[in-house]
Amino acid sequence: MAVKLDDNDWKRVLDGTDSKTPGYSVFCLPIQQSQQDDRQYRLIRLENGLRALLVHDPSADKAAAALDVSVGHLNDPDDMPGLAHFCEHLLFLGTEQYAVENEYKKFVTSNGGSTNAYTSSSDTNYYFSVSSAHLRGALQRFAGFFHSPLFDPSSTTRELNAVDSEHKKNLQLDGRRVFQLGKALSKQRHKWSKFGTGNRESLLAAGRALSSQPAFATRENDEASSKDSLAAKMAASSGMPSPAPSAPSDSSLSKMDPDGGPAGRETRRRLVEWWESEYCAGRMALAILGRNSLDDLTDMAVELFSPVRNRGKDPSPSIRDSPLGPNEMGTIVFVKTVMDFRSLEICFPLEYQDDLYRSKPGSFIAHFIGHEGPGSLFSYLKRKGWAVGLSCGSTALGRGFNTLRVNITLTPEGFASYRSVLIVTYKYITLLRTAPLPPFHFAERQKLSETRFRFLQKQSADSYVSSLASTMQRPYAPKHLLSGSTMFWDWNEEQVRNVLRNLTVRTGRVMLMGKSHDEIGLGDVWLKERWYQTEYQVQRLDNELVAEAQLPNDISDLYLPGPNEFIPDDLEVQKLEISAPLKRPMLIRESPLLEVWFKKDDQFWVPKANVFLEIRSPLASVTPRHAVLTRLIAELVTDALQEYSYDADLAGLQYSFSSSSRGFQLSLSGYNSKLPVLLQKVLDTFRNLKVDSVRLAVVREQLRLEYENFKLDQPKDLGMFWMRYALQERAWTPEEKLVELHSINENDIQGFLNEILHRVFVKVLVHGNMSNSDALQVALKVETILRARPLTPAEIGLERSLILNSGSNHVWSTAVSNGSDVNSSLVYYCHVGDIKDDTLRPVLSLLAHVIREPCFYQLRTKEQLGYIVSATQVQSTGSMGLRVVLQSERDPKYLEARVEAFFDGFRDVLREMPDEVFHRSKDGLITKKLEKLRNLNEEADRFWTHLTSGYNDFLRAANDAEALQHISKEQVLDHFMKFVHPSSISRRKLSIHCHSQRAKSVNDTAAELHPRNTIISDLVSFKRTLHVSAAATPVADLDDLLVSKL
Question: The domain 586-713+728-794 is classified under which CATH number: 3.30.300.30, 1.10.3720.10, 1.10.760.10, 3.30.830.10?
Answer without folding.
Answer: 3.30.830.10
